[in-house]
Design a protein that fits this description.
Shape: globular
Radius of gyration: 27 Å
Helix content: 25-40%
Strand content: 15-25%
Largest sheet: 10 strands, mixed
Distance between the termini: 78 Å
Number of strands: 26
Structural class: alpha+beta
Bound molecules: adenosine-5'-diphosphate
């Protein structure tokens, strides 16, 4: 049952037996697992999560205070579904896809705060439909039958719902219609409108999942250069407080080369989410200059929703993402934070008195997380287009301890790990992504793309940088014991090169226009210039030039300034020749 569908509740009315926070037990209710039910006199929305004999257990997506035993429970007989159609972009939803602005209006006018229904997409608004099929054509499930300009940035493809049989087109409309007006009618009587419904817990069908081979270019040097994610890939990003989680997420939402961004905020009540709701609409889309919201759908847990709604946020978000993927778009889904969702599972599980697993989390924690990330991928869609859902989940390990169950279980599933590090943030090294702990398992499958589109030796350069940074890590331990001057000269030089890698390459300032987005060509150029310095410097050292002379050449400090040059190509050419000339003049 979606927000827009008629809510007939004829399938059998039960009574509340007990209420324990978001968990309500009902008796005499004729229901199946995952049915959506309306609980109590106020009709709060909930979902059946357990049936034992005559007792049905329901998780309720709204605050249950004041709801008492004896009140009625009505069953809709349908699973939790979302409305899919034009109008989802530029929208901010709560966990059960009620648009927050509509909700606020309704609440203000009627002083209602619970049990409010509001359709996920506007049922009255008219959209300009341009057909792409004509009478006599044959269409199948998933096929695109027309286009609607949804926002200034995105064309919405109207598709035959996946569960339709399909067949010969009888008639086609053109012009302005509401989402429920049939725009294409098939000879078999099936009518295609702009709105579809889909049960959130079910993956939308595709032809096949493919190995992703294109990077989701983020414009962040450390990510693209060292730990790339594929289009259709999965990543986890733990964010201890103050480590730059918000800034990183904004940068990804703005610059990652996804067509659509779905941002799922299953955060703490209040503050965390208000920030997102206030921040996002103000972000500008660097590609078009329009508001970023023109290609973004935001799903956020609101302050009057209990923990159970965090779960529905996640499922609603991934279903919306899959729907845009079906149109052939690359979608980036960001879930913030999956730890809060896991905590919700823990709370519900304990109220159900289930056998607890590690640290009180339910035994099915790993399975649920896996199910979610499984829905990401690079797909061939039913209509023959290719599209992707990349899933980036923020994790908030208490105390930054990565050994806790949510981080550990997530790490077993995702293929990219970007470890935000509070120590780096404290040292003002941003983005504070720890290069020793982070990894990407997509490197091998993405290298051919970088070789072809950026530079043939992209993988070699990366490996060189990783080796230097590794060596620096080992040398630092010695330096802490005996001091830098006790090291042999070649190791001192390695430390110097590593410093340029950290300061000139890995650091990137999200608040400086020229630096906030770094195209892969520039990422490569910075690395390659630092390597030129490295090679020339070691040659000079081998030839007997004292290290102080090498490291004090005028050109060297400019390595840290490439990132902030408008005309970086010329700057890099000049810098490389200056470095070569100045070092070679020493011997
Ligand atoms: P969190 O959300 O993890 O609490 P924020 O994203 O708000 O942390 O970042 C905290 C501060 O760190 C920011 O206000 C900013 O000053 C700094 N910061 C984080 N990332 C960057 C970056 N990429 N470039 C420059 N400064 C950054």
């Amino acid at each position: 049952m979606s927000q827009a569908s008629e809510t007939e509740t004829t399938e059998g009315t039960g009574r509340i037996k007990s209420v324990s926070g978001p968990v309500v037990k009902a008796v005499d209710l004729d229901a199946r697992m995952n049915d959506v039910v309306y609980v109590g006199d106020e009709g709060l929305m909930g979902e059946v999560i357990e049936i034992e004999g005559d007792v049905t257990t329901i998780q309720v997506y709204e605050e249950t205070s004041g709801v008492a035993p004896g009140e009625p429970v009505e069953n809709t007989g349908e699973p939790l579904s979302v409305d899919l159609g034009p109008g989802m972009l530029d929208a901010i939803y709560d966990g059960v896809q009620r648009p927050l602005d509509v909700l606020e209006e309704k609440m203000d006018s009627a002083f209602l705060d619970r049990g409010v229904d509001a359709p996920g997409i506007d049922l009255e608004k008219e959209w300009e439909f341009t057909p792409e099929v004509e009478a006599g054509d044959t269409v199948e499930a998933g096929d695109i039958v027309g286009v609607v300009p949804e926002t200034v940035t995105i064309d919405h493809k109207v598709m035959v719902p996946p569960e339709y049989e399909g067949g010969v087109v009888e008639s086609v409309e053109e012009g302005k219609f509401t989402v429920d007006d049939p725009v294409v009618t098939l000879e078999n009587g099936e009518e295609i409108a702009m709105r579809q419904e889909w049960p959130v817990r079910e993956q939308r069908p595709t032809v096949e999942k493919r190995t992703p081979r294109t990077p989701l270019v983020s414009g962040q040097r450390i990510l693209d250069g060292l730990f790339p994610i594929a289009k259709g890939g999965t990543a986890a990003i733990p964010g201890p407080f103050g480590s730059g989680k918000t800034v990183t997420q904004h940068s990804l939402a703005k610059f990652a080369d996804a067509d659509i961004v779905v941002y799922v905020g299953c955060g703490e009540r209040g503050n965390e989410m208000t920030e997102v709701i206030e921040d996002f609409p103000e972000l500008e889309d660097p590609k078009t200059g329009n508001s970023l919201m023109a290609r973004t759908s935001l799903i956020a847990n609101t302050s009057n929703m209990p923990v159970a709604a965090r779960e529905s946020c996640v499922y609603t978000g991934i279903t919306i993402a899959e729907y845009y993927r079906d149109m052939g778009y690359d979608v980036a889904l960001m879930a913030d934070s999956t730890s809060r969702w896991a905590e919700a599972m823990r709370e519900i599980s304990s109220r159900l008195e289930e056998m607890p697993g590690e640290e009180g989390y339910p035994a099915y924690l790993a399975a649920r997380l896996a199910e979610f990330y499984e829905r990401a991928g690079y797909f061939e869609n039913l209509n023959g287009t290719e599209g992707s859902v990349s899933a980036i989940g923020a994790v908030s390990p208490p105390g930054g301890d990565f050994s806790e169950p949510v981080t550990q279980n997530t790490l077993r599933i995702v293929k990219t790990f970007w470890a935000l590090d509070a120590d780096l943030a404290e040292r003002r090294h941003f983005p504070a992504i720890n290069w020793n702990e982070s990894y990407s398992l997509y490197q091998d499958q993405l290298d051919p793309w970088f070789e072809e589109n950026v530079a043939e030796d992209w993988p070699d350069k990366r490996q060189w940088a990783v080796d230097v940074l590794d060596e620096e890590g080992e040398l630092q331990e010695i330096v802490q014991l005996v001091g830098k001057d006790a090291l042999p000269e070649d190791q001192q030089l390695t430390l110097e090169v590593a410093r340029y890698l950290r300061e000139g390459y890995l650091q990137q300032n999200a608040f400086i226009d020229v630096d906030m987005y770094c195209p892969p060509e520039k990422t490569y150029a910075i690395l390659s210039t630092i390597q030129t310095y490295n090679d020339e410097a070691f040659d000079a050292l081998d030839a007997g030039v004292p290290i102080e002379d090498i490291t004090s050449i005028d050109a060297a400090p400019k390595l840290n300034r490439i990132a902030t040059q408008e005309d970086w190509e010329t700057f890099v050419d000049e810098l490389k020749s200056d470095i070569t000339e100045q070092i070679r003049s020493l011997y």
